[in-house]
Amino acid sequence: MPGKLTEEHIQTHLKQLDGWTREGDQIVKTYVLSSYAEGLAFASTIGYMADALNHHPDLLITWKRVTVTLSTHDVGGLSEKDFDLAQRIEALPHRPRT
């Protein structure tokens, strides 16, 4: 099981992620899409990828937006798993604009 990251590690990881912000014990990013359907497809891609990693983000799908919230509930905060998944999301081909 991953351990909870120190504040120093969290700040180092955040500097490597464009557009992600910290909100308490979570990191969050909202992606802007060209349509609602594109948002559904993007969220589905994230969902399948996350399921394969056994790490499940909170996804909020609204009109032309998908908000991704990551936290490791088992450790009560942020772990390497959160930043690994965030980097994988950022690396998706045809990623929507932010």
**SS strand fraction:** 15-25%
The CATH topology: Gyrase A, domain 2
Give the CATH H-level superfamily.
Answer: Transcriptional coactivator/pterin dehydratase
Q: At CATH's second level, what is the architecture?
A: 2-Layer Sandwich
Low-confidence stretches: none
Rounded to an integer in angstroms, the radius of gyration calculated over CA atoms is 13 Å
Order of helices and strands: HEEHEEH
Overall description:
The protein is an alpha+beta fold and about 100 residues long. It has a single domain, classed as 2-Layer Sandwich (Gyrase A, domain 2), CATH 3.30.1360. It has three helices and four strands. A four-stranded antiparallel beta sheet has the order 1-2-4-3, with helices on one face. A hairpin with a 2-residue loop joins strand 3 and strand 4. The mean pLDDT is about 90.
Short account of what is shown:
The protein is 39% helix and 21% strand. The chain is α+β, with helices and mostly antiparallel strands and 98 residues long.
Labels describing this entry:
98 residues; alpha+beta; Gyrase A, domain 2; four-stranded antiparallel β-sheet; 39% helix
